[in-house]
Amino acid sequence: MLKDSGVRRVFETGAVRDIAEGKGRCDLLPLDAVAELIQSKVLPHINDYVRTGKIDCLERAILAFIYEHPAWDLYTALLEVSKQYEEGARKYEERNWEKGIPLHCYIDSGVRHYLKWRRGDKDEPHDRAFIWNMLGCIWTHKNKRGNPELFDLPFSGKEDE
User: Fold this and answer.
1) Range of the structural domain that residue 69 is part of
2) How many domains does the chain fold into?
3) pLDDT tens digits, residue range 84-134?
4) Is 71 within the bounds of a domain?
C-alpha cells in the first residue's frame, strides 16, 4: 500500500504527487560519495545520469538493483512495479505521472526509497517504488522534451536523445 500524507503538490503540468517537504532532498546528496560509503552498485549509475543526462545510466541502475534484490528477477520486478502503477492510479488518477513531473522529483524519491529498502524499512514497498521512480524518470526524459521546466538536473554536455 502506498503511504499517503493527504497533502499534495501540484505541478505546472497538472501532475500530482504526495508532499515532499520534511522528507529530505536525496537528489542533492553527493551520490558518488554515498555509493562508496554504503558500497552501492546502484547509486553510481544514478549519479552518472544526474551529471550526464544519459538515460542508459538509469537502466543500468534498475538492473543493478534487481541483481542486488534477493527475491527478484527482471520479470518479477516488472510485475511488482505494475502494482505500484495500480495503486498510484487509485491514489491520484490513471496516467497522472504522464502529465509531467520534474526529473529531480523522480531522483529524490527513487534514492530515498532505495535507501529505505537498503535499511530494511517495511512501511511500504520501497523496492518497487524505487523502480517506479527510475522508470518515470526515463519515460519523462524520453517523452517530455518539449517541457524544459521538467529538466531540472545539472546535466553537462549532450545527453541522450
Assistant:
1) 27-150
2) 1
3) 999 999 989 999 999 999 999 999 999 999 999 999 999 999 999 999 999
4) yes
- CB count, 10 Å around CB of 142? 11
- For residue 3, give every residue at least 6 positions away whose Cβ sits within 8 Å of its Cβ, in sequence order, or none: 18, 123, 124
> Is residue 136 one of the residues assigned to a domain?
yes
Cα separation, 158 vs 78, whole angstroms? 30
Does the residue 12 lie in any domain?
A: no
Q: 142: closest CA among 31, 134, 128?
A: 134
Least confident of 7-11, 78-82, 134-138: 7-11
* 97 vs 88: CA distance, rounded Å: 9
The model's pLDDT over 76-86, given as tens digits with 9 standing for 90+, comes to: 999 999 999 99
Q: Does the residue 4 lie in any domain?
A: no
